Amino acid sequence: MAAPTPGPAVLEIVVPAYNEAERLPAGLSRLCAELAALPLAAGVLVVDNASTDATAAIVRGWDGPVPVRLLSCERRGKGAAVRAGMLATRAPYVGFCDADMATELSALRRVLALLSAGRPVVVGSRRHPESVVDGYGQPLRRLGAVTFNRLVRDLADGVADTQCGFKFFAGPLARAAAADLRTTGFAFDVELLAHCVRRGASITDIPVVWHDRPGSTFSVRRHSVECLRDLLRIRTGPAARSRPGRVRLPVPVARAEGAPLPTVSGAGRG
C-alpha cells in the first residue's frame, strides 16, 4: 500500500453517495489508488446522503492509501450532498466524482495541470470530440441528455456536457458557488456552474474515457419534470445574473507544494 503524501490536502474530492454499498468499495479503491500516485497530498470526502444500506459503515471502516472522511447529509438529493461536501472542504483545489467512478481517473493529472495553470473550473465532457464513451445508457437517456444540455449551454459558459459527474474547481470558488447552491436534485450541476460563471470564472472542458455502469438512480421518466422545473428556477434566479468581482484563486499547486505537477498539451476548451 502506498504511503500518503504528508501535509494538508491540496486536493479534496467529494463523493456523493446514496445507497452505494455495492459500488462504493470498488470506486473508492480506484480513486484512492489514483490519488496516492499523485505528487501531492489528497483526501476524499464521502457524503452519505441519507442511505439506508451499509454505505456509512463502509466509509467508517475504510483503510486505504489516502485519508477518507465521512460526512452525513440528511437532506436528500445529489445536489444537497455535493453542496454539503464542498462546504466541508478546505483544500486549494476541490472536485467531485460519482461513486461508480464512471469517468476513468487517469484524467486527474490533466485536471491538476490545468488547475495549477490557473484554470478555475475544469469539467469532464462526454461530448468532447476526443472523449471515448462506452455504452452511454439507453437511447431515451441519451436523447434527454442532449436536449437538456442544449437548453443550458448559455448558463454554463457553452459547455456541451454539464452533467458529467467529474468536475473540479479552485477551492475558494467552489465553496463560494456551493454556498449559493439551492438545487438539490440532478440539475444542480447547471446551477453550480452558473454560479461560477457569474463570478467571472471560465470553464475548461476536457475529454474523458467514460464507462456506463449499472446502478444509476437517475431516471428520465421519473426525474425529467423535476429537472425542467429546476432549470426554470435557475434561469429566473440569481445564478443566471452576472455579478462583478472575482473570487481570489489560490497560488498554483506546484509553487505551493514545491513539487512539479504533470504538464499537458492541448488543454481543451477555454
From TrEMBL:
<feature type="domain" description="Glycosyltransferase 2-like">
    <location>
        <begin position="13"/>
        <end position="151"/>
    </location>
</feature>
<dbReference type="InterPro" id="IPR001173">
    <property type="entry name" value="Glyco_trans_2-like"/>
</dbReference>
<dbReference type="InterPro" id="IPR029044">
    <property type="entry name" value="Nucleotide-diphossugar_trans"/>
</dbReference>
<protein>
    <submittedName>
        <fullName>Glycosyltransferase family 2 protein</fullName>
    </submittedName>
</protein>
<dbReference type="Pfam" id="PF00535">
    <property type="entry name" value="Glycos_transf_2"/>
</dbReference>
